[in-house]
Amino acid sequence: MPRKIREKQLSLQQMARMRAARRPRATDAGIPIDAESLGPEEEGRVVAHFGLNIEVETETRERFRCAVRESLLDDPVCGDRVVWRRVGAEQGVIVSVHARQSVLRRPGPYQRLLTMAANVDRIVVVSAAATFNTGLVDRYLVAAQKVGIEPILVINKIDRMTDAATLEAALWPYPRMGYSLFWVSALQDSGMAHLEEALRDRTAIFVGESGVGKSSLINRMVPDACSRTAEVHAATGLGRHATTTARLHRLAGGGFLIDSPGVREFGLHGVIREEIPGLMRDMAPCLGQCRFKDCRHLHEPDCALRTAVETGKIAAARLESMRRILESVPPRNPYF
Fold first, then answer.
1. How far apart are CA 18 and CA 96, in angstroms?
2. What is the pTM of this model?
3. Reported CATH class of domain 273-328
4. Pairing label, strands 180-183, 113-118
5. Do residues 230 and 239 make contact, with C-beta atoms less than 8 angstroms apart?
6. 69-93 pLDDT, tens per residue?
């Protein structure tokens, strides 16, 4: 008897076929798919995903609840451009997904890959001024570098900032590496105009921990978004999940914003341990200059990265952050 192949050993294409086989049929969502009931093919964009149904916006900005044809290998996600056909006045069926210009994924439970969004050209990494998380931010920057999407750093809730000097000391390496950095307050509407201008005519996904104010920022820029917000837990200081599913909104001046659920941790997909230093902008120029080719950048003599720290070219916190990321990625990344 042939051995049972575990899902984590399969290729991404094989896993996609398995997911398609398990996907509920359009009829399970209460939408018939017989040819006589389907309208002509139309273009649309996925703006949200709710259980068995996907919300699609047309070019005339109408929105329809759609099911997914079983033959699709990938589940449509927020930002996808799709071809769909109407069923009645308010329903439809997605029949195909256009090729994606970019895709952002992260590992999920049980070694499953979660696709966060597609066709984005900006990743807006949001942090709260009082709880800036260097490790999480650096992970997002590595992921953005890997998939070729330009990141933007946003420090929100500056109205609640209590130690500006410490925060500025933690942030100084990022503008020097070429990252755009915005200091804003959604509550006081401070800095919002500059951020909105930077996102004009772009498709941007807002990411970060729960409670940093992603939904509040989007509500400021898109007044009719009505994204749910939640306060940080008073006892633990941790954010509460206000957004439970990604949702796409239109900017009045042009462009799209995607509000994504907050996370406590962000794993890396498609990245092997050896390439992580090369995906960090300040580390990459020093690679290949260490005495030993297999330098771990810990205690080895003539380490180029440690020398760069000693001479002030690289912040010590960044080197420590890189080491923590390296420790968290197994030799053979199961999400690759």
1. 18
2. 0.82
3. mainly alpha
4. unpaired
5. yes
6. 878 878 899 999 999 999 877 789 9
Task: Provide the H-helix boundaries in 222-315.
Answer: 304-310
Per-residue pLDDT averaged across 133-137, rounded? Answer: 92
Amino acid of residue 89 = A
Predicted confidence (pLDDT) per residue in 280-328, tens digit = 999 999 999 999 988 888 888 999 999 999 999 999 999 999 999 998 8
Residues 186, 184: Cα–Cα separation, whole Å: 6
% of the chain with per-residue pLDDT over 70: 80
* Token code pair at residue 121: 């050209």
- Beta strand 122-128 with 203-208: parallel, antiparallel or unpaired? parallel
pLDDT score at 53: 85
Helices (DSSP H) in 23-133: which residue ranges? Answer: none
Domain 7-97 has CATH 3.40.1260.10: no
Q: What CATH number does the domain located at 103-259 have?
A: 3.40.50.300
The two tokens of residue 127 are 């942090």
Yes or no: say if 103 and 246 are a contact pair by the CB < 8 Å rule: no
Give the span between the Cα atoms of 57 and 252, in whole angstroms.
16
d(CA 299, CA 6): 39
Q: Which residue reads 């398990």 in tokens?
A: 22
Please give the structure tokens belonging to residue 236. Answer: 């633990």
Name every residue whose Cβ is closer than 8 Å to that of residue 199 and which is 6 or more positions away in sequence.
122, 124, 152, 221, 251, 255, 257
Domain boundaries, the chain: 7-97, 103-259, 273-328
In terms of Cα–Cα distance, which of 46, 53, 50, 51 is closest to 83?
46
The values of phi and psi at residue 48, to 5°, are -170, 160
Residue ranges of alpha helices (H) inside 60-178 are 134-147, 164-171, 173-176
Q: What angle do CA 53, 147, 290 make, to 5 degrees?
A: 150
Task: Answer whether 222's CB lies under 8 Å from 252's CB.
Answer: yes
What average pLDDT is seen over the chain? 83
